[in-house]
Amino acid sequence: MDLNERFDWQGRQIAWGRAGSGPAVVFCHGTPWSSVVWQPFAEMLSHDHTVYLWDMPGYGLSSKRADHPVDFGVQAEAFAALLAHWGLDRPHVIAHDFGGAVSLRARLNLGAGYASLLLVDVVAIPPSGSPFFAFVQDHPDVLERLPAYIHEAIVRAYIRGASHRGLRDADLDALVRPWLGEEGQPAFYRQIAAYDESFLEENERRLGRLDLPVRIVWGADDAWIPVKTAQRLRGLLPGANLSLVAEAGHLIQYDAPAAVMDEIRTWLA
């Protein structure tokens, strides 16, 4: 499933793709990922659903201009505009990592309509971030100028640490590739430097207003965002339930793909 379409929005080009027929399902990726993490699931689901993949501005195949902000607020606005562009009124939304905060903000602040929301190891409420995030925020300009081979080593080590079981070489290459080169390297540090926890604090204050079916799926061995955050998130979401997937880390799509597909199928059914 290729992202061969482009949506022009506020000077940005958002890469997206659509496949299949049936009820609409939209996948949202997080950081530092792209729609690649959801591609196999979207392809399987396209047999009986209309599936949509997109890369957020600043990520994947979408434009990465230095003068374009990439914070939670901007991404939520981009998502709401994209849903309108697609003419979708109430799709099912499946979000991972950063995509959780984006989809929640688009719903709570911008009135985007969803039929349901499946949150998978999401960044949604504080605290979040990491010591690496703090370091990048203190030194973004320095890191942008690192020799390419050192930058690539950093990105590979960082992404590799999101998996509990370990990534295959081909999968790691696909996740690292968008962050290499003259455009990708500074974009990698920009999206971390733009991290602003105040958006998550606002999410937390508004979660009680969410009025749609929500399910939370979490890797039991997520070393990036611990299970206790998932449990607290469940307590803040009216009627939400939580499913823990054994032997899976933050990149649950790679650690336990069969379990994730089963969770998606069961939820949509």
UniProtKB/TrEMBL annotation:
Pfam families: Abhydrolase_6 (PF12697). SUPFAM superfamilies: alpha/beta-Hydrolases. Gene3D superfamilies: alpha/beta hydrolase. Residues 25-262 form the AB hydrolase-1 domain. One of its GO terms (molecular function) is catalytic activity. PANTHER family: ALPHA_BETA-HYDROLASES SUPERFAMILY PROTEIN, HYDROLASE. This is Pimeloyl-ACP methyl ester carboxylesterase.
